[in-house]
Design brief:
With 209 residues, the protein is α/β, with parallel strands linked by helices. The longest helix has 19 residues. The termini are far apart.
């Protein structure tokens, strides 16, 4: 296992891409990072913030998008949310608000950033249209499927311990993402949506699909 792959790809690789873009005469570089609420000390988060700082001083016009938690990933079996079998692992109390965002909507922001003056030399926190707690998401799926979910909870402090105790950078980063998830990720979208009047995906729409 390449334990340095975060440094190799997410830090050095991203910086090299910025350098190559500048050398090629690219005027505007759009970078996708992490929400400001993902603010614990773990390798992948630190790599993202380091690249953000590098881009800001590169001389390129930049847009840094900071999306929250993708609903396609964090409401999937990959992280223990198995809607098909009505089972869910909940990180934290389950009452924390999270502005789940669809990958499709992040792409919308990326495309809009190409031409929008509001995106130039700006950092944009982007989330879904409405914060929803994990417990509320479970209820939405129960109402849609007619099944009662079997839920288990992982306390935030346990996740913090996993993050601090892990030695592998990817394991440390995954535990860090879960820990930040357990603390919540609400994103106020009012100002951003005034500049980018996009139609965003509600969690209910994701559930319906």
């Amino acid at each position: 296992m390449d334990t340095n792959r975060i440094i190799k790809f997410d830090t050095n690789g991203a910086k090299s891409l910025i350098d190559a873009a500048k050398a090629a005469g690219v005027k505007h570089f759009i970078y996708t990072s992490f929400s400001k609420n993902m603010d614990a000390d773990f390798p992948l988060r630190n790599a993202k913030r380091e690249v953000e700082a590098y881009l800001k001083t590169s001389g390129l016009t930049y847009t840094i998008l900071r999306p929250g938690y993708f609903m396609e990933a964090w409401l999937s079996p990959m992280v223990g949310f198995d809607a098909e079998n009505a089972k869910a692992t909940i990180y934290g109390s389950g009452d924390q608000p999270i502005s789940y965002i669809s990958l499709v909507d992040v792409i919308q922001f990326e495309v809009a950033s190409v031409t929008s003056p509001a995106a130039r030399d700006n950092v944009l926190e982007v989330g879904g249209p409405q914060p929803v707690s994990p417990n509320e998401v479970v209820k939405l799926f129960e109402a849609k499927s007619g099944k009662t979910f079997e839920t288990s909870y992982v306390p935030a402090e346990a996740l913090k311990g996993q993050m601090e105790g892990a030695t592998d950078p990817m394991q440390k980063s995954f535990a860090g993402l879960m820990y930040c998830y357990a603390l919540g990720d609400p994103i106020d979208m009012q100002a951003v949506l005034q500049a980018f009047p996009l139609k965003l995906t509600f969690v209910q729409e994701f559930v319906n699909r």
